[in-house]
Amino acid sequence: MTFLELLHIIVPILTVAASVVAVLLKDLLAAVIAVAAMSLLLSLEFYILQAPDVAIAQAGVGACLTTAIFVIAIRATKRMEGEA
Amino acid sequence: MSTRNIAAVIVFSIVTVFFIFTALLMHSFGVPDESDMDDYIIENTQEETGANNGVTAVVFDYRGFDTLGEATVLFTAVAAVIMIFRRLKND
Amino acid sequence: MTEMSKIVRTITSITFPFAMIYGLYVIAHGHLTPGGGFQGGAVVASACAMILVAFGSKWTIDKIKEKKLSAFESLGAIGFIALALLGLVFGVAFFNNFLTGSNFLFGNIPPTGSVFADINTGGVLPLMNFAVGLKVIAGLFVIVLVMAYATTSFKGVKK
To answer: For the stretch C33-48, what's the b/e string if a residue is b when 16 or more beta carbons lie within 10 angstroms of its beta carbon?
Structure first.
C-alpha cells in the first residue's frame, strides 16, 4: 500500500470524525472551529483527488469566509447551546 | 422504546443500506462509462478557445449559461444580506 | 467588532500582501493555471476578511463604504453580461468567444498538447475572469463587512 492510498483512507475518516465532533459539541464556537477543520480536510481530499481549483474554492469559502460569518452570528446571539 | 424511536431506526437502516449499495455499485476512479464529450473537449479546447486551462474553458465558454446563473445567485444573496442588515444598523 | 491586540495587527499586516498577491495571481492566470475568477476572488475576499477581523469593522468601514463595494459588484455583473452580449454583436451567438484568432487582444492560439504557457491567449476568457473576480471579491466581502458592522452597532444600542 503506497502513501497516497493510505492518505485516501485517512483523510475521509478524519473528515467524518471532525463533522461528528461538530455535531456533538455544546459550545457553538468550538463547533464552528470543528466545521472549519472539516472543510480544510475536505479541501485536502479534493487536492489529492486531482481537482486543485475546487480545493482552492473550498479552502477560501468553506474554511475562511463561512467561519467568519458563523463567528459573527454567534457573537450577536448566545455562545452556548441551550438544553433542549 | 417509543414509536418515534422505532421509526427513526427503520429510516436510518434503509438509508444506510442504500448508501452501502451505492458505494458498492460505483465504478473505479478515472474510468467513466461514456467519454465522448470528455474526449472532444480535451482534444479541441486549445484550438477552439485558445486557453490552456480546460476547466476555465468549459466554465466560461462551453457552459457559459451555468456561470451566468451562478452570478445571478451570488447577486441575489448579496442583495438580500444588504437589505436585511441595513435596517438593523439604523435602529 | 473592536480591534484586536497589537500582535495580531502586526502579523496581519505582514501576511495580508502575500494572500492578496496569490489571489490576484489566480485571477490573472485563470486561463493558464488551475483556478479562475471565483477561486481567486474567494482568496482575496478571505484576505480582506482577515483585515476586518484584525482592525475592527469601524476602521474598515471608514476606509471603504459598503455602497462602493455594492457598486463594484454590480459593475462586475454588468461587465460579464456585456462581454456575453458582445459575442452576439461581433460573433454568431450569446457567449461566443469572438476574440480568439483575432490579432487584437488575447488572440493567440497555442499548439495542441502540453506547451509552455502564453499569457496572450484565451480570447474573452481572461476578461470574463476579471469581471467575475471583481464581482466575487466585492460580493463576498460586502456580506462579511455588513454583517460585522450591523451586529456591532446593534449590541451597542441595546446595552
So the answer is: bbbbbbbbbbbbbbbb
